[in-house]
Design a protein that fits this description.
Blueprint (H helix, E strand, L loop, with lengths): L15 H24 L2 H8 L3 H8 L2 H8 L17 H15 L1 H10 L3 H22 L6 H21 L3 H5 L2 H17 L6
Helix pairs in contact: 1-2, 1-4, 1-6, 2-3, 3-4, 5-6, 5-10, 6-7, 7-8, 8-10
Amino acid sequence: MNESTPAAPAPAPTRRSDTTRRAILEAARERFAADGYERATIRAIAQQAKIDPSMVMRYYGNKEGLFAAAVAIDLKLPDPSSLPRDEAGRALVTHFLHQWEENEVLTALLRVGVTNDAGAERMRGIFNDQLLPLTRRVCSDPEQAPARAALASSQLLGLALTRYVLRFPPAVHLHPDEITAWLAPTVQHYLTAPHPGV
């Protein structure tokens, strides 16, 4: 080894607090998804994370703070500027399906959102901050974007509720490609079709 070449710095050790936080959040997501907000307890979450309940309170303050941290979600929606307008419906359905299949946090949020004000508020925040701006870029009249985004959400969340929370067998057994084929035209219609003028 050339003596003039400095040795590469050793990787920084993972701090114990980071590991503890991750364990708490993983346990919280599982408990919120399985039990809902009201029935999930700090004690049960701590037990699953194999830590003392006081540690949960130390890092997150209370159950509301823990819930907010556990369901902090970036949907990573497609960039509207790179999305052909007539492909927006298919892109959204495909993207959301991938997110639901891979991310139990969304299931936890949906389960809690239909029964609890904190969960519903979190879902409204995601709608306003992430889905609505994309819809404004895709639809021809930005003033119609809130209604169009709400209608698209009704399809996406309805599917998620029946497939991942209520687990209706026909919805569970549908192949993702089949779901996309059914839903994409409807979501596309909501996003870009002419206003019905009613």
